[in-house]
Design brief:
The chain crosses the membrane at residues 44-66, 71-93, 105-127, 160-193. It comes from Weissella ceti. Helix 2 packs across helix 3 (49-67). The chain has 200 residues and is mainly alpha-helical. It is 80% helix and 0% strand.
């Protein structure tokens, strides 16, 4: 029963993560660095976000499974296949729905706040379920151990490189204040959500 609860937490968490990213995108305030990069790659290659992110995830998955297979789990597999297509799905609904999330600065600011809160809640639920790391999240700890440097330095470098690739592929189309806040503020929001969420 506890395993079923964990799986439910993973699916709900990844769904909320995707919804949060879609709200940020529809609000025009910039998405998280990883989604921004994959949207940029999709723009250059003509692929949809779901397919672009799936392909990038597979490449990262190969790296992770060759170096630290212990962090791979059911949640990893769901993340690889599900998130990109879920963001694409929710974005389609929000962009074609009756509510214009870019109607004015107030609505955009509201979308920024709600999007980031929902995004961080989704990550918290997914991570705390403990059914495997996302490939992107697993890269920094592996490289940190291999290079003998701090996790924070490797993760910051990783995020900066991903952000740079997003800018190269699509300019500021998917990068904005939301991207910066996701990059520097998600950790604090996860800590805050953990204080109010029940344990898995």
């Amino acid at each position: 029963m506890k395993f079923v609860k964990k799986v439910i937490f993973v699916i709900l968490g990844l769904g909320l993560l995707a919804l949060g990213a879609a709200i940020l995108s529809a609000s025009g305030v910039g998405v998280d660095p990883y989604t921004a990069m994959n949207l940029g790659i999709g723009q250059v290659t003509g692929l949809g976000l779901g397919t672009a992110q799936l392909l990038v995830n597979v490449v990262l998955f190969v790296f992770v499974i060759l170096n630290r297979p212990s962090v791979i789990g059911l949640g990893t597999a769901i993340n690889i296949v599900f998130v990109g297509y879920a963001v694409q799905f929710f974005s389609g609904i929000l962009n074609n729905g009756p509510l214009n999330l870019q109607a004015n600065y107030f609505v955009m600011a509201l979308g920024l706040v709600v999007g980031i809160l929902v995004y961080a809640l989704g990550i918290t639920m997914y991570v705390d379920a403990g059914l495997g790391q996302a490939p992107y999240e697993a890269v920094a700890p592996i490289l940190s151990d291999k290079l003998g440097t701090t996790y924070s330095m490797v993760r910051t470098t990783q995020d900066v490189l991903v952000l740079a690739l997003a800018l190269v592929c699509a300019g500021f189309t998917y990068v904005g204040i939301g991207t910066i806040i996701c990059a520097v503020g998600t950790g604090s929001l996860i800590t805050a959500w953990r204080k109010v969420l029940p344990g898995v």
